[in-house]
Design goal:
Blueprint lengths: L1 H25 L3 H27 L3 H30 L13
Helix pairs in contact: 1-2, 2-3
Amino acid sequence: MSEIIGTIFIVIGLVFDIAGCIGLIRLPDVYNRLQATTKSITLGTCSILLGAFIIKGFTGIGVKSLLCIMLLLLTAPAAAHALSRAADISKIKAWEKKDALS
């Protein structure tokens, strides 16, 4: 039963990671790309690691996956903030949607 639940978490994580990768390719500027990748890939990777923990239990792999989840939840928002601040300081402009009438 735990293998089925763990596999479900891994598949959900893969879907979120793929959505983050598509957002990285499809979105127009650095700020939108950071939004898509930080949220979806953090959730996706944490879900994959949680699935690995559920499958393996409190073994070496399971404990390492829990530590990686905590590390990822602490560092991903800080890294995204640092990147967006650096883009702002470098005067990278946000995407401006062009109206059809102008």
